[in-house]
Design goal:
Blueprint: H1 3-10, H2 19-28, E1 30-34, E2 39-41, E3 49-63, E4 69-75, E5 80-81, E6 95-108, H3 109-118, H4 120-146, H5 149-164, E7 165-167, E8 172-174, H6 180-187, H7 191-203, E9 207-210, E10 213-216, H8 219-225, H9 239-244
Antiparallel strand pairs: 1-6, 2-6, 3-4, 3-5, 3-6, 7-8, 8-10, 9-10
Helix pairs in contact: 1-2, 3-4, 5-6, 6-7
Length: 251
C-alpha cells in the first residue's frame, strides 16, 4: 500500500470512503516536507487545498493590529487544517506555521467537494469538524473576554490536559512543549505575565515545571477554582505517539 494512501485512509474524516474513492483522492494529493518554523501559508494565499498533517506540528494564528501573534489552534498529526478550501476556494485569512519539522499532504479542495457530493457521511464529518473548531474558538473568546490572566492561563492548561494529558506519578503531564510566548499568544497576554502566573502556580504547588514541560498536580482544584469541570485524562498513548509508529513518506 502506498504510504500516502495509508495516511488518507487512516484520517478519521476519510475512513468511511471506499477504496476507489481513496485512490481517486490519493491520485490528486501531493505531499511536502517543511522545516521547523516554516510558513505553510499566509493570508491572501489561494485557499484551494485542504491539508492533512502526517508528522510534526503546525500552529494557526492571526497577527493583531499591534503586531502580536494570536494563536488560534495547534494542529497535530492526523488532523486536517485549511478546511475552508472544502467549501470556498477564496483567500486564506490566517497564518499556518510549523512548530517542528513536518510532513503535510495537500489535497485539492475541489477533490474533497466532489467526494462530499457522493458521500453524505463525509459531508456530515466535515460539518462536525468545522462545528467543533468553531465551538473551541468561541469558548476561548469567552475566556478572553471575561476572565483574568490567571484564570485564562489555568483554563488553557486544563484544555491542554484534555488533549495532551499523560498520567505520571507526580501528576498530569501536558505532553506538548510550549514556550511562555506560545502560551501568551493563545490567551492574549504577554510572556512576562505568563511567567509570573506560572511562578505563582508553582509556588502554590499546583504545577511542576521541568524543561518546558508542565505537570498539573491538582487539576481538580484548579478547575473548581475557575468554575469549570475537570478534564478527562486519556490513559492510552497520544495520537502523536501512535502516528510516529506508522510509516513515513517523502515529498
Amino acid at each position: 500500500m502506498n504510504d500516502k494512501f495509508w495516511y488518507l485512509k487512516s484520517c478519521e474524516l476519510f475512513e468511511r470512503l471506499t477504496p476507489v474513492q481513496i485512490q481517486r483522492l490519493e491520485a490528486r494529493a501531493r505531499s511536502r516536507k517543511f522545516e521547523r518554523n516554516s510558513l505553510v501559508y499566509v493570508p491572501t494565499d489561494a485557499g484551494d487545498s485542504v491539508m492533512l498533517l502526517t508528522s510534526g506540528r503546525v500552529k494557526i494564528y492571526h497577527i493583531t493590529s499591534d503586531g502580536k501573534q494570536a494563536m488560534l489552534a495547534i494542529i497535530d498529526p492526523g488532523e486536517m487544517f485549511g478546511e475552508l478550501a472544502m467549501l470556498d476556494s477564496g483567500e486564506r485569512e490566517e497564518f499556518a506555521e510549523t512548530m517542528e519539522a513536518s510532513s503535510i499532504v495537500l489535497i485539492p479542495g475541489s477533490a474533497v467537494q466532489q467526494l462530499m457530493e457522493e458521500s453524505p457521511q463525509l459531508s456530515l464529518g466535515v460539518t462536525k469538524m468545522m462545528g467543533l473548531r468553531r465551538r473551541r474558538v468561541e469558548r476561548r473568546l469567552k475566556s478572553l473576554l471575561f476572565r483574568s490572566n490567571r484564570e485564562r492561563l489555568i483554563h488553557l492548561l486544563l484544555e491542554l490536559v484534555e488533549k495532551y494529558g499523560q498520567q505520571t506519578d507526580e501528576g498530569i503531564r501536558i505532553g506538548i512543549k510550549l514556550s511562555h510566548q506560545d502560551l501568551a499568544s493563545i490567551i492574549g497576554s504577554t510572556r512576562e505575565t505568563v511567567t509570573v502566573v506560572l511562578g505563582e502556580l508553582q509556588t502554590e504547588r499546583n504545577v511542576i515545571i521541568k524543561r518546558r514541560q508542565i505537570i498539573l498536580t491538582r487539576p481538580k482544584e484548579l478547575a473548581a477554582g475557575i468554575g469549570v469541570s475537570p478534564p478527562p485524562v486519556p490513559q492510552s498513548p497520544s495520537r502523536d505517539e501512535r502516528m510516529k509508529k506508522q510509516p513515513q513518506f517523502g515529498s
